[in-house]
Amino acid sequence: PAISPKLSQTPGQTRWLGPELGALFAQHVLLVLGSTAIAIVIGVPLGIAASRRPRLGAPLIALTNVVQTIP
Fold first, then answer.
1. Given phi > 0 = left and psi -120 to 50 = alpha, else beta, which region is 18?
2. Are 6 and 18 in contact (CB under 8 A)?
3. Separation of alpha carbons 31 and 7, rounded Å
4. In whole angstroms, what is the distance from residue 19 CA to residue 25 CA?
5. Could you say which of 11, 12, 19, 50 is the most buried, measured as most Cβ atoms within 10 Å of its Cβ?
6. pLDDT, tens only, 11-68
7. Which 8-state DSSP code applies to residue 5?
8. Rounded to two decimals, what is the model's pTM?
9. End-to-end Cα distance, the chain
10. How many other C-beta atoms lie within 10 A of the C-beta of residue 20?
11. Residues 45/51, Cβ–Cβ less than 8 Å
12. Helix and strand totals (H; E) in the chain
């Protein structure tokens, strides 16, 4: 379940309260590290293969261009 942060309004200031901020930060860092690791594991071997085999490189670049446009 997602943790919903609570905001406290003080005059002219918004403050994050409670331990939720730390939990959300840790969750964010884990998600970023995990997705970055997956991208490296997939991307580096494909990049090496594309640089060694130009016939593979062109379709691979076209595919990555299409994938990057998908949100």
1. left
2. yes
3. 23
4. 10
5. 50
6. 544 555 566 788 888 999 999 999 999 999 999 999 999 999 989 999 999 998 998 8
7. P
8. 0.62
9. 23
10. 13
11. no
12. 2, 2
